[in-house]
Amino acid sequence: MSKGTVFNIEEFAVHDGPGIRKLVFFKGCPLRCSWCHNPEGLSFCKELMISHAACIKCNRCKEICTNEVCIACGKCVEVCPLRLRKIAGREYEAQELAEILLKGKEVLTDSGGGITISGGEPLSQPEFLFNLIDFIKPVNIAIETSGYAEPEIFQKMVSVTDLVMMDIKHTDNLIHKQFTGVSNELILANLGFLCQSDTPFIIRIPLIPGVNDTITNIEQTAVLIKDAGKLEGVELLTYHKTAPAKYQMLGKEFKPGFDTEKKVNIWSAVFDKHNIKVSLL
Ligand code: SF4
Ligand code: SF4
After folding, report:
1. Would you say the CB of residue 78 lies under 6 angstroms from ligand 2?
2. Rounded to an integer, what distance in angstroms lies between the CA atom of residue 166 and that of residue 189?
3. Protein residue whose Cα sits closest to atom 2 of ligand 2
4. DSSP string, 145-156
5. CB of 61 closer than 6 A to ligand 2?
């Protein structure tokens, strides 16, 4: 039985696959997208998050802590009278998590929905992921992925999933490296496999002003996917400005490296031209 770390479970999600869905977020990601609005999903370890603004400086958290460096033990979470502290990340056994996700599954299946596994990057905990899927089937499963995984793992995921929701951040490798910390070669190779597969998929593009919202990048992305038989459509995701608060809660600095105030270009007509269904989320 494999174990894995999860940082959130959301009920009644309606934007991450068909119907009503439960959404589970695996913790840990090999990418470092400079716009990431889920920084608690980056590290594979548990982390302490603190809402500093409402703190009344009662010092109960300091009195109970015996560690010089935080080990995310959670003792201070218990004593904070205003519940300003929480631990992001909890370890589960695959079967235990499946039982939680399948509770009330009729609501999901009756709506044509199911379970969506997101992150972080779910393919970065492959043993746990495939073990979990074994327990969840035959409920409909969607996977949200950056596509950054060994081809063997990616291909296995495609074969056991009902819907793949894959991000394409940039077609230019240098810009991709600059803003995500990794090369796009593996991602584009995996995209090629997905386009040839029999598994339905959606491409998601986080639209980042001045980074990937150029007509050239959008056109090149459309060309990569236009002939795929199982492409259901493209979802353009607009940039969230909620990220800085979460970085502060983790004691990290938000350094986006782009102009967060700049208006984003939305080239949806490019997808229309190639007969690709496109929506703006
Ligand atoms: S979680 Fe709280 S009590 Fe535990 S090590 Fe970190 S600061 Fe100390
Ligand atoms: S226990 Fe809560 S309210 Fe008290 S000092 Fe710590 S964070 Fe602030």
Report:
1. no
2. 13
3. 80
4. E---S-HHHHHH
5. yes
Kindly report whether the global pTM for this prediction surpasses the value 0.90.
yes
**Ligand 2 contact via 75 beta carbon (within 6 Å):** no
Domains of the chain and CATH, by start: 3-46+92-280 (3.20.20.70), 47-88 (no CATH)
Mean pLDDT of the chain: 96
Q: What pLDDT sits at residue 265?
A: 93
Per-residue tokens: 168: 């394409």
Whole-angstrom Cα distance, residue 189 to residue 148?
Answer: 10
The closest of 101, 14, 86, 10 to 46, measured between CA atoms, is: 86
What per-residue confidence (pLDDT) applies to 244?
Answer: 86
- At residue 230's C-alpha, the angle toward residues 224 and 235, to 5°, is 65
- Residue found by looking up tokens 């009503």 in the block: 20
The answer for residues whose C-beta is within 8 angstroms of residue 269's C-beta and 6 or more apart is: none
- Report the half-sphere exposure of 227 (CA within 13 A, side-chain side): 6
Q: CB of 28 within 8 A of CB of 124? A: yes
Residue owning tokens 């782009």:
258
